[in-house]
Design brief:
Blueprint: E1 2-5, E2 14-19, E3 22-27, H1 29-44, E4 48-55, E5 59-66, H2 74-101, H3 109-112, H4 116-124, E6 138-139, H5 147-156, H6 158-167, E7 175-180, E8 183-189, E9 199-201, H7 210-225, E10 229-232, H8 237-248, E11 253-256, H9 276-283, E12 287-292, H10 294-297, H11 300-310, H12 318-334, H13 342-349
Helix pairs in contact: 1-2, 2-4, 7-8, 11-12
Length: 361
């Protein structure tokens, strides 16, 4: 799979309207240029078959199947595709500039109305213009059985996920310094799950046999049906199976992550979203993702819990951090969450609207 991102993530390619049950995608003129350029790939290189494509407002997904050896490297194919897009993109913007000078309605109004500053230099300065796409591209090679169908579904489902995220911005916002049980976290999802009255930890030894995992899974599903919220780092295979079963059954979850979010300075920070069933659970208000702050791993109580199990090892060691996540999960479940609403003060200081708890419960 290849992914191409519009420079500065500007939404130039299409507009997406509707809701999760009725999604409508309308290509802009630039989007139509990109669509035409994708068809040229197989015309120029018949060894390549495009299995799936999806144009989004600020990026393009292409799933390619190379059936025979190519006469050139794939990077040359990508370069040619980008060059073809840029030529018609610049021509289109030149026409737009001419149209505006005549005082007529621009043909790209849907896209350019929100990106005028971005387009101005591209229209007028041929020396500094940089083209439609960001440098490079993202690629992913499929190796395993079942990946193809999963990826095709992911690509085709992009517009629906787009409208879901847009409809629930508070649930997909990365929140810094959320305080729960005396610990600070980076978080995403329904923060009010932290105040759930009944919480329990999903924790399985790696030594458990499948029959034992299945028994624990059944017990957890029964407890969840009776109002228990489960918290887990989902590290071992047993923990992953149980958390997957809880998500599939529609029960809320709190998941602890060792490294789950990009840093604020990362260019993809504001575009981050969870994938797969985590995305669906997040959109439904049934998921809270938590990444502990570095200082949490160094707290005396957490350190003592880990030390009692494996002795002294560095905080940076992966084994330490995994055991610490389990200790953090236990603390979230055993301590009252009276300080979790510290997020309220943080939100009010930023002048943002706070979410009423009734919205997601």
């Amino acid at each position: 799979m290849l992914t191409f991102v519009v420079r500065d993530r500007q939404p130039l390619l299409c507009k997406i309207e509707g809701n999760e049950y009725d999604v409508r995608t309308e290509l802009t003129e630039i989007g139509s240029i990109v669509l035409e350029a994708t068809t040229r790939i197989s015309e120029l290189y018949p060894q390549i078959r495009i299995l799936c494509k999806q144009i989004m407002p600020d990026h393009l997904h292409l799933l390619l199947f190379v059936e025979e050896s190519l006469p050139v490297h794939l990077t040359s194919v990508v370069s040619g595709f980008k060059i073809g897009c840029n030529r018609k993109y610049w021509t289109s913007l030149a026409k737009l500039a001419d149209t505006e000078q005549r005082g007529e309605e621009p043909p790209l109004q849907a896209a350019v109305s929100c990106t005028a500053d971005f387009c101005e230099a591209e229209k007028t300065d041929t020396k500094t213009r940089t083209g439609l796409w960001e440098d490079g591209y993202h690629d992913r090679i499929l190796f395993h059985k079942g990946q193809l169908d999963t990826l095709i579904h992911y690509i085709k489902d992009n517009p629906r996920r787009f409208v879901l995220k847009r409809a629930n911005p508070e649930l997909f916002k990365i929140r810094q310094h959320l305080q729960i049980a005396g610990m600070f976290f980076t978080a995403m999802g329904n923060i009010f799950l932290a105040d759930y009255p009944q919480k329990a930890v999903v924790q399985c030894s790696r030594k458990l046999h499948q029959a034992e995992i299945d028994a624990q899974k059944t017990a957890c599903l029964n407890e969840a049906a009776n109002g228990v919220l489960f918290v887990s780092a989902a590290i071992s295979e047993g923990e992953k199976q149980i958390c997957r079963a809880l998500r599939e059954a529609g029960h809320p979850l709190v998941i602890l992550l060792e490294k789950g979010f990009p840093k604020p300075e990362d260019q993809n920070y504001k575009y981050f979203k969870p994938h797969g069933m985590y995305f669906e659970a997040c959109a439904a208000g049934k998921l809270l993702l938590l990444e502990p702050a570095k200082e949490v791993y160094e707290q005396a109580e957490i350190e003592a819990n880990v030390k009692a199990k494996i002795g002294d090892i560095p905080h940076e060691a992966l084994r330490y951090r995994f055991l610490a996540l389990n200790a953090i999960a236990e603390r979230i479940c055993t301590e009252e969450g009276e300080d979790s609403l510290a997020e309220l003060a943080d939100t009010e200081q930023r002048g943002e609207e706070y979410i009423e708890i009734s919205e997601y419960r």
